[in-house]
Write a structure and sequence with these properties.
With about 100 residues, the protein is an alpha+beta fold. It contains 2 helices and 6 strands; from the N terminus they run βββαβββα. Strands 1-2-3-6-5-4 form a 6-stranded antiparallel β-barrel. The relative contact order is 0.23.
Amino acid sequence: MTEYFPVSFTHDADRYSAELTNLSATGAHLLVKNYEPVRHILVVGEELTLEIRTPYGKSECMARVAWLAPDATPVSVGLEFVSISKDASDPLRCAIDSAL
């Protein structure tokens, strides 16, 4: 069963909601809900700060846009984690470890 985690990120001054799926130790797949503006602003290589809600609590991390499917509905974004907590009790780390 695929798990989906609510996530938000800010680009310039605008905040966007999305769902994170296919979570792994190195990255994840992002499905952007309010996709119309995102379709035109995200670029491969850009770094985003993500706030992710997992069953274990909220966590924040940095991720790089690895690939982008701007014509998909919703917009699909492949993310590569740049910085995530190494703390075993961090909610994102717990979600990653439980998926492995």
